[in-house]
Amino acid sequence: MAGAFHELENVNEVADNANLTIPRARTLLDAVMRQRDFAVVQLLQHSTDGKPLLECLVVEVECDGVPPKNGYGINYRERLALCVPADSRQLIEVLALRKDFPVMMHQNQGIPGAPASLCLYFEPAATVTRTWTPQSFLRRIQWWLEKSAEGALHPADQPVEHLFFATKYELVLPWNFSELRANPALRFAIARGAERADGGFTCFMKTTAQDAAQHAVTAAPVELQLAPVVHGFVERDPQTLGQLADILARRGTELVPALHGALQQRVGDAGVHATADDKFTVILLHIPVSRTEGANPVGISHRAFIVLTGALELGAAVGALMLHEKCYYRDMLNSAPATVWREQSIYPMDVLSLNDSAAARRQSGIADAGPNGVLIGAGSLGSAMLNLWGRSGWGRWTVIDKDHIKPHNLSRHTAYAHHIGQYKTAVVADLHAATVHGATVITPLCADASDFTQEAVVSALTSSNLVVDASTTLEYPRAASAVDAFARHISISITPSGNAAVLMAEDAGRAIRLRSLEAQYYRAVIQNDWGAEHLAGNARSFWSGASCRDISMVMSYSRVLGHASTLAEQIQVASASDASSICVWQRDPARGSVEVHDVRPTAERRMQLGEFDLFIDVGAEAQLRDLRANGLPNETGGVLLGYYDFNVKAVVVVTCLPAPPDSTASQGAFKRGIAGLTDAVNEASRRTAGIVDYIGEWHSHPRGHTASPSRDDFVQLVHLALGMSDDGLPAVQLIVGESDMQVLQGTVC
To answer: Going by C-beta distance under 8 Å and a sequence separation of 6 or more, which residues neighbour residue 590?
Structure first.
């Protein structure tokens, strides 16, 4: 029986339990003695200069959960060595001492012929030791043995095990490596990065034209496509080419023939002069990995090794090439097979890949690929959101902006100093390319987004399926609302104080457009407590240049990024829904807390008023009808609040005010009073940053009467027109009848 178990080396037997000196070993022994399923076989110790560095408890453990005669080779009773290092930061290693213990998944880096080391934990050592107890450790051992015996330790949906463990050396491949490999006009070169403090470094696979000169600090890789292997035992990294060949041979694939062919391809019939050899060679292995023998591969394991000789010298070492008069030629006969190559030192490298869009979304937890979108405005907010979306792989974007980077932009823009003077669209496209390395592309369009005479602008806005307006202007969203052919729009902004962010999303069918959502947002600002200081300009402005157009807001980059993060996510949410929405995030800068205010949009109505279009939404109409109903049986009325926009020939009704308390009313007449009216109008204007103001009057007709204007109504309209003419504005008169509503406009010619 003794010959069936491994004997540990460089250890001495401990005759008495009291001679154990490592605290964890003593507590573990106590737990073993109390556990009926564990029995102590032997105590061992490894010391240097009389100081114990390692103490081992050789135990036998019984597991009732191990099925008899299971197909995985786990026995009901197993002999294990529990190796306790003196350094409490290190985990206790568990070695399976049975010589025929099966090679399985979730074993630590192994050496053929040595005891198998059980991989008990997925977490790093610092996480395990934080809650580790001897009792839970023993239960963990039994759990590992029982699950391994059931074939349930590695779930079917868990990725297959890699063939090798991690290393401090890395090789980074392009995201589209397979596509680039198929291009005969390109060849690859390996560039080595700077060495880190731990001695590790990262190399990068670069592409260059076939006829381009080889750079002195690069090397051409040797790629080998090997036969499939079955995942399971994780190999200890080989230190020589011979060890690597032996590992792969045990897995059913041959290294040398593949290496021969790859190295001979590097040399033409005319040979290659020895001076053309690289300073180092990178061998890149592509190894298909299957879950079970005979099954189709479910993944590709990539591993690379650095050889500190050039590919030509290596080719001669493996017998693929021969050196004659300082030139290397193919050794087609290989009359004297070389063996010196087996001692060639190699250094393992992890093979990583740059993200493509799918990988970025997977790592970000985003399922939706995002829209074919247009972003209006590449300023502070727009550039921040593009950075967030680009890193998460969401969307494909055309960016429209006409401005360029100035020095003051650097305080809250993603641009850098060397971008000063460049168009903002070009800058965000450049930064995106630097992040994703061509996996996606931002299309820059330096133009005025509000100029619909530009074919490129109109084409972008009509061919996309989502337009995000981050221009922070009134011009663009109002103009875009008038164009039926444009894609769905979402408008976002940050308030002047930097304390709030606003999102307004059109519905998928654009039945409710930004012009109406803007008006409904203003109504919410006027009517809700949270709107009192919502648009207050309490952040100072400064002159960034010589003209009045060069005014910039004072706002920290942290506020921009905070709101950009929220808006970037919420645009994803809004775009996934067909419904329209208005949402405000109000932040308390002193505490960092955020209040969310949702405003439920209502449908808009459009009425022709001469050369103007009047817009009013169902919510404003409902207010008017409620005020009429509350005034019955008498007539009632008040003032209309809204705004004119001569650029788009529109007048928009935002809300109405009720009759002042000094008004007089009867069933046949109404005379509006003035008490408190000026203050109410001024407060509405203040809350909306001067946008909403007085635009006209409204009144109701009594029961049984339509909204058709009476003679008195026309007289009133004349007076309104004369009054508004002082400001050069038309006057609006709105009449609410029993079941209808009419709007009249009065102008002075």
So the answer is: none
Task: Share the mean pLDDT of the chain.
Answer: 88
In a domain, 158, yes or no: no
Q: Which of these three, 337, 354, 371, is where a domain ends?
A: 354
In-domain check, residue 162: no
Residue 599 has pLDDT above 60, yes or no: yes
Please give the tally of structural domains in the chain: 4
Residue 136 sits at the vertex; the CA angle it makes with 134 and 142, to the nearest 5 degrees, is 105
pLDDT, residue 192, reads 86
What would the two tokens of residue 384 be?
A: 């921040």
Using H for helix, E for strand and C for coil, what is the string for 162-205? CCECCCCEEEEECCCHHHHHCCCCEEEEEEECCCCCCCCEEEEE
Report how far residue 685's alpha carbon sits from residue 25's, in angstroms, rounded to the nearest whole number: 77
Q: Alpha-carbon distance 390 to 398, whole Å? A: 12
**Domain co-membership, 444 together with 512:** yes
pLDDT at 630: 95
The whole-model pTM stands at 0.78
Q: Is 614 exposed, middle or buried (0-12, 13-18, 19+ CB in 10 A)?
A: buried
> For residue 15, what pLDDT is reported?
85
Could you list the beta-strand ranges (E) of 448-567.
Answer: 466-469, 489-494, 500-505, 541-543, 551-553
Residues 426 and 521 occupy one common structural domain: yes
Name the pLDDT band for 127 (thresholds 50, 70, 90).
confident
Give the gyration radius of the chain's Cα atoms: 38
* DSSP annotation of 4: G
- The CATH code of the domain that includes 109 is 3.10.110
Q: Do 540 and 591 sit in the same domain of this protein?
A: yes
The C-alpha atoms of residue 106 and residue 232 are separated, in whole angstroms, by 7
pLDDT tens readout for residues 514-547 = 999 999 999 999 999 999 999 987 444 444 444 3
Q: Which structural domain, as residue segments, surrounds residue 214?
A: 169-354
